[in-house]
Amino acid sequence: MEKLQFQLVGDKAPAAFIPILVGVVGSGNLEVMIEPLADSPTCRVDVITSAQGFAPIWRAVMQDFQERHGLAGIAISINDMGATPAVVSLRLDQAAAALHGLTKDNA
Amino acid sequence: MNAPDGRWNQQAQSRTRRVARAVAALGHGLEGKHVASEDTTKLLTAVLEPGDRVCLEGNNQKQADFLARALTQLDPSQVHDLHMVQSVLALPEHLDLFENGIASKLDFSFSGPQSARLAKMVAAGQIQIGAIHTYLELFARYFVDLTPRVSLVCAQSADAQGNLYTGANTEDTPAIVEATAFKSGIVIVQVNEMVEHLPRVDIPGDWVDFVILAPKPNLIEPLFTRDPAQISEIQVLMAMMAIKGIYAEYGVQRLNHGIGFDTAAIELLLPTYAESLGLKGKICKHWALNPHPALIPAIEAGWVESVHSFGSELGMENYIKQRSDVFFTGADGSMRSNRAMCQAAGHYACDMFIGSTLQIDLNGHSSTATQGRIAGFGGAPNMGADARGRRHATPAWLKAGAQAREGRSGVHAMPRGQKLVVQIVETFREHMQPAFVEKLDAWALAEQAKMEIPPVMIYGDDVTHILTEEGIANLLLCRGDEEREQAIRGVAGFTPVGLARDKRMVENLRDRGVIQRAEDIGIDKRDATRSLLAARTMRDLVRASGGLYNPPKRFRNW
Amino acid sequence: MNRSFAESTARERVAHLLDAKSFIEILGPGERVVSPHLALLGVPSSFDDGVVIGHGTLNGQLVFIAAQEGEFMGGGVGEVHGAKLVGLFKRALRDKPAAVIVLAESGGVRLHEANAGLIAVSEVMRALLDARAQGIPVIMLIGGANGCFGGMGLIARCADHVVMSDLGRLAMSGPEVIESSHGVEEYDSRDRALVWRTTGGKHRYLIGDCDQLVEDDVDAFRHAAIGLLGQSMSLSLLALEAEHDLLSDRLTRFGECRDALDVWRLLGVPDPSIVADLEASEMFVLKSLASGESV
How confident is the model over B169-182, as pLDDT tens digits? Predict the structure, then answer.
């Protein structure tokens, strides 16, 4: 098991919201939780993964995600059970979409 | 017929001698053409001679398993150094022959289940491989320089005259028997039953010498059944991209799917996703394909006009019988498959092949070779290759050819079509093995197994599109090695190959449409859910078939 | 359109079973009440420890709900997971909902947590029975692909009502366990038709361990649950003794049967071999044949 942390710079900070959860911690799958991180210029990412030695790929996936969404003021927490980057990207996009939907409702 | 000068009918004379030996050895055990199963050893010993070229029906699906076992039990001092020519090494017995000193040389096409053991035995010098072929190539050589002297085949039933019914799993038998029978060879068949009247004649009795009623029905493996429950969201996404980005784009009406969950997802998206795009009638009418259960919903929804098959698929028999407008069936109602003809159809009459692979390099060469295994090729290279002899034009073929030749000069300026050859693969396989590599394992395997050239399944210059979860790379539009390399890197995701991309070049390729992302094709990734599948379980498939499909036990979970 | 119960995640099942947007989660993922054991074993946890609990309305009535996530550790009951279920039942004593509904999908005790898991299972049983003793109906909905086995199977049968889909399974010992204890000749766990004949919804329905059989559809489960709201079954000594009698009669009647097919035949089902291919809705007729004969 490995713990990784990334701090990503972004500019789109959502208004307050209740935590969002997508995915399930099953084999080849992961859960992604997004919570508010008040007044933070960054998007903080904490990953706990069953696989070892893939930090560079996680970093690339997160950077790619950030290029697409540019979020700030949020904390992303991930529990991963060996998902491929394709599945990780998909869950992250699903979580971001849920966040967008949620904060649109709140607006 | 019997020339006094025996110089030019040596083979016919040899055949006469062998048959005479068999008759003598079997005595009353031979009734017409029928040999009792307990006399099989006697028969084989009488008929075979050291060094003979023998074809054993180890097909992709059905197996002459009783004859294979009997062959392994012969006395190697009497029968040795046989040269085996067969499509597939499927059974342990196929390799036991070499271990037991009965056979020494091998020409084949595919060895999936036996690939690791084959590699070991080759390394240990127990087997001398002549060459590894595609199926159609091997059948072709049966008529040129690999004609069998004795063929051991299997059929469903025989009558007293030796006429054979091979039924839905006819597969390779006609090609094998024709080559053997018409070059003074000897044909021995194991059957599941003897009947007075066959449903139809698949192989005429004139071509058959000896018939054995096997103690158990011959083995057939269900290799083309895929449980929809195992299709992932990523595979649904790739299937959506295939349908909208390629099938619709080129108007693919005639096609072959390499077996896999990726293509099963495409089959299950036709009545739903493809329907929503208004594509019915515009794509997927004619198939060179085994009767995939996953195609049932599309057939039921009226997408499919015809399916010709290489072999059958266990559990589909009744469904096929009730859908004779779609499948190739005899007057008796049961299907007739034919691997040789279906391979030819896949090569010449299809606009597109799409299938998965294990590794792709920077030139687009695609290989399923892995170290420590000699798996061979099977049929994929026939389908996954541009049919350069093809002349008849179809919209898809013309469009692909035009894209490949646009702006080019010299010999490439002549207008010509091209077959679409699509490799569909996730960037990472199981255990996070990257599908994209700088150097294929095929090189190392070639060295290990002393092959003349690396065993590439589909050559890069035949691949027209590479489709991953990251998008589609259209190699037809690439000009030069560098563009081709970056186009491949541009869909190689987060693999080392993908991460090493030239970002600016890849963006440029995307602007030109050489690389397309899902959003460029108008697909929202979040729509890629399993609820798009027309059937999500085996039971759904059974229901879709109106109860006609009867899956083998291992696929039932109800 | 049909929404498969089996394919839905625990959260999706809750969201679509209850009245729209009525669900309020207790101890949600944001509170990070996670397993204290798994990290020590190098296994990733889940923020909700594999069970979603909370309350909402069902057809306008207040219900408490718990849904086990079968994909996480096979739905196994760990210390925190079990404590969430216990807490839910205890709060039910205070708030008296029209039912406590448990969407059970579990292999039983989460072996990684060993004794903590075992204790959790027994505490859940006790808390469930306490709720029932106060007249709060407990309804089990079983329809996940992983089935409801082990200690969770025992818990399920402590409830007032069990609703299953024909895809669902309910038993104590899992198929692989039976095979490894008694041999493949006795029980081939890869013979999935056999596994479903032995533990699947249809068999449970015919033999009386399951009260209602529905299709694999969230809406079908919803309607079944609505119909059972407020319906508490007696939890008296008399009821327990009647259950014992029923079980011993069942053993006498079917003890010599080798296969569920034999059981169904004795129950008066005309053609047992076709039962596996029947739809859930077609089972009702067979059940009435069977019920006509049981005590």
Answer: 999 999 999 999 99
Closest CB to A48: pick one of C10, C28, C44: C44
Task: Please state, rounded to an integer, the average pLDDT across all residues of chain C.
Answer: 95
Stretch B320-332: mean pLDDT: 97
Chain C residues near residue A1 by CB distance under 8 angstroms: 39, 42-44
The yes-or-no verdict on residue B68 having pLDDT over 60 is yes
| Closest chain B CA to residue A64 | B494
- Is there a contact between B63 and B154 (Cβ–Cβ < 8 Å)? yes
Chain B: closest CA distance from residue A94 (Å):
7
- Give the start-to-end residue ranges of the domains of chain A: 2-106
Classify domain A2-106 at the CATH class level. alpha beta
Distance CA C208, CA C243 (A): 11
Topology of domain C10-170+210-233, CATH: 2-enoyl-CoA Hydratase; Chain A, domain 1 (3.90.226)
Q: Please, which residues have CB within 8 angstroms of residue C38's CB and are 6 or more apart in sequence?
A: C44, C45, C78, C112, C113
Angle value at C-alpha B309, between B307 and B313, nearest 5 degrees: 110
Rounded CA-CA distance C260/C210 in Å is: 15
Domain ranges of chain C: 10-170+210-233
Q: What is the mean pLDDT of each run of 10 residues along chain A (107 residues)?
A: 94 90 96 93 95 94 94 96 95 93 58
Chain segment B238-248, per-residue pLDDT in tens: 999 999 999 99
- Chain A and chain B share a number of CB contacts under 8 A equal to 37
Place of tokens 């396989």: B429
Q: What does the buried/exposed string (b/e) look like for B386-418 if buried means 16 or more CB atoms within 10 Å of the residue's CB?
A: bbeebeeebebbbbbbebbbeeeeeeeeeebbb
- The more confident residue out of C255 and A107 is C255
Residue B505: CA count within 13 A, CB half-sphere: 17
B553/C277 touch (CB, cutoff 8 Å), yes or no: no
Percentage of residues of chain C with pLDDT beyond 70: 98
Cα angle: B185, vertex B189, B191; to 5 degrees: 170
In Å, how far is A64's CA from the nearest CA of chain C? 24
Instruction: Look at residues B337, B346, B359 and name the one whose alpha carbon lies nearest to residue B454.
Output: B359
Greatest extent of chain C over all pairs of C-alpha atoms, in Å:
55
Name every residue in A having a CB less than 8 A away from some CB of C.
1, 18-19, 21, 24-27, 29, 31, 33, 35, 48-50, 77, 79-81
* pLDDT for res A40: 87
Q: Is B408 near chain C, with CB under 8 Å?
A: no
Residue reference for tokens 């000699």: B374
ipTM of the complex: 0.93
Q: Is B46 left (phi over 0), alpha (psi -120 to 50) or beta?
A: alpha
Query: Pick from C193, C213, C200: which is nearest to C283 by CA?
Result: C213
Cβ contacts of C7 on chain B, cutoff 8 Å? 530-531, 536
Whether B102 and B54 have beta carbons less than 8 Å apart is answered as no
Give the distance from residue A99's alpha carbon to the nearest chain B alpha carbon, in angstroms.
14
Cβ within 8 Å, pair B493-A97: no
Beta strand ranges found along C168-276 (DSSP E): 212-214
Other C-beta atoms closer than 10 Å to the C-beta of B183 total 15
- For residue C13, which of C156, C239, C219 has the smallest C-alpha distance? C219
- Kindly tell me if the per-residue pLDDT of C12 is higher than 60: yes
pLDDT band at C295 (very low <50, low <70, confident <90, very high): very low
Taking an 8 Å cut-off on Cβ atoms, the answer to whether B553 and C276 are in contact is: no
